[in-house]
Amino acid sequence: MTEKPRYIVRASEEEPYSPANHTGTRNYRLVGPTVNGAKTMEIILGDIERNEGTPAHAHPGIEQAVYVLEGEAIAGIDGVEHHVRQGDMIFFPANVFHSVKALSERIKLLVIYAPPYGENPDQLIR
Question: Does the model's pTM come out above 0.85?
Answer without folding.
Answer: yes
